[in-house]
Specification:
By secondary structure, the chain is an all-beta fold. The chain is built from no helices and 10 strands. It is 0% helix and 49% strand. Belongs to the nematode transthyretin-like family.
């Protein structure tokens, strides 16, 4: 029996945390696990929205050769000014997932804790497709 090739091995990931806006839990966030610079996975490996308490969890099967390029992207409207606040505009914030993981029960776990989104943005994006998951 042959071993599977390295590029066909997928690693299970589990990521959870809480999103906050000005210290209060927020559910108005779209969260995607993505591979930085990858055309093949440009739509993300997994996506979710937090519940009313701001808690979220993601699970995904990540290709072995793409683990070092993982990012968690947040689209949110925390602290939007009236100039920025349009129905299809979101602030984006990226978090690199290269360190801080633990292997537990057959998967890689990231326990992110609280993520404060106020004043955290890499830019504003016009993203009408984000309104639905």
């Amino acid at each position: 029996m042959r071993r599977p090739s390295r590029d066909r091995i997928n690693i299970p990931y589990y990521i959870n945390g809480t999103t906050l806006c000005n210290g209060s839990p927020t559910s108005e966030v779209l969260i995607k696990l993505m591979i930085k610079g990858s055309w093949k996975y440009r739509h993300g490996l997994s996506k979710t929205r937090p519940n009313s308490e701001g808690n979220f969890s993601l699970t995904a099967q990540v290709p072995h050769y793409e683990q070092r390029k993982l990012i968690l992207k947040f689209w949110h409207k925390c602290n939007m000014t009236s100039k920025d606040y349009r129905i299809f505009y979101y602030k984006t914030y990226s978090l690199n997932l290269t360190d801080g993981s633990k292997w537990f029960k057959g998967r890689i776990n990231y326990l992110l804790g609280e993520i404060e989104l106020s004043n955290k943005a890499n830019g504003n994006k016009h993203v009408p497709y984000l309104l639905t998951i």
